Fold this sequence. Notes:
Strand content of chain A: under 5%
Radius of gyration of chain B: 20 Å
Shape of chain B: flat
Order of helices and strands of chain B: HHHHHHHHHH
Number of helices of chain A: 10
Largest sheet of chain A: none
Oligomer: heterodimer
Radius of gyration of chain A: 23 Å
Number of helices of chain B: 10
Distance between the termini of chain A: 75 Å
Number of strands of chain A: 0
Helix content of chain A: over 70%
Structural class of chain B: mainly alpha
Largest sheet of chain B: none
Strand content of chain B: under 5%
Shape of chain A: elongated
Helix content of chain B: over 70%
Amino acid sequence: MNAPAPAPPLPLRVRAAMLLRLFAIQGVWNYETMLGNGIAFALEPALVRLPGGRKGDAYKRAMARHSGYFNAHPYLAAVAVGALARAELDGVPEAQIERFRVAAPGPLGSVGDRLVWAGWVPLCSAIALLAFGLGMSPAGVVLLFLGVYNVLHIGLRVWGLHAGWSHGLRVAQALGNPVLRQGPAHVARATALVAGIALPVAATGIIGPGRVLLGSVLAAVAAGAVLITLLHGRFEGWRLATLALAAFVLYAMVR
Amino acid sequence: MTPLEFLALAPLAVLGAVLALDVVSFPQAMVSRPIVAATLSGALIGQPGRGLAMGVALEFFALESMPFGASRYPEWGSASVVGGALFAQSADGTAAAMTGAALAALITAGIGGSSMVALRRWNAMWARKQQARIARGSGSAVVALQLGGMSSDLIRGGLVTLLALTVFAPLHRAITATTEVPPTVSRAAVVAVASAVGLAAVWKVVRTTAGARWYLLGGLAIGFGIAAGLL
């Protein structure tokens, strides 16, 4: 495959406006168009640069096209937004843009879900839980969690927009980035290790001086975790927990 | 609840609104995660440490539910504000304080999740009404739809927080006044249930990755060693 042509410059204020709008890409998420309106919303600062500006036909056709159904991971949607902005401003034929809009959501959704929702969020939670268990201050725990989490969060949005703009509709190459391909497995292993350490340490930190109860708590945790795992797909753990705590409160009130 | 007490809930309702907005709409920076949201809620009451303790317990629950696309999940932003505030405003040593606050937070999370589903249906309906303008390529219709959705989500979060606090604050006071469960037992009950949910959630995440279960077992061994004072 030929190397992509060098990306033409896009003014910094346009990139900044697109990046800011990317943070609100799910502002009107719904079950019919999903991210669709958000894609058009994030693209709009670039589409204004089409011939004729906001009143031009090219702008109107592009806005109508991009507000239709689109589904992807919200952070990695930045890749699609960058690529689509480049394609529109380069005058790529509509059919080619439509093909990209159909093909891009799958990979952008699955990579993002595995890397961020199933990997990075639990890892950052585990790091913060461990910090609490080891006695870090409330401000320290909050700043640690937000700092670590948002390095990847903001990084992905900035990188995605840049990669999409640089590669245009050939952006699939950018998804071969080692962080995206091998990252989820490494993050899952790190999550397993840190969460394993954090769960007992944080639990002990909450119980506080009543550590004589620790044996009973551990037995309940093991039994509960096995039960929830067995019920997976039929009954969510938090619902089961609500029932258990409601029963505990009622028992405590009437005994 | 007197009008003055109701007014006192306003700052918490605003915090709940902003944090609920973060869950999906803007900016998804995870300030809505319980470990952050409950701490901020506790800090607003002057007890960030108690807010954090509640946040840690709720974070175990939140490990189970991730915001995958169209899936339905509890809304932890406003729920954590409710849980953190209820636990933070009860004095240290209050009977059943953590159990009552965690229960209120879990119920609020469920209601918040349902309200998000309703909002998404509302968004779809509103988008259909704007369809003709959007099909003509109206940029202002796209922007108005986006801002309208975000504003609705902000209001939704504020209302969920306000209503939950209005209902659960007196209930929480009643629970803590009528029970004699020692605080340590109350905390242990919450920790046992929350940790079970958290452990099952971590297992669900790591079981599909080669070798990850050994990392989890190794981590648990180290964690128990630290908790027992052996390391």
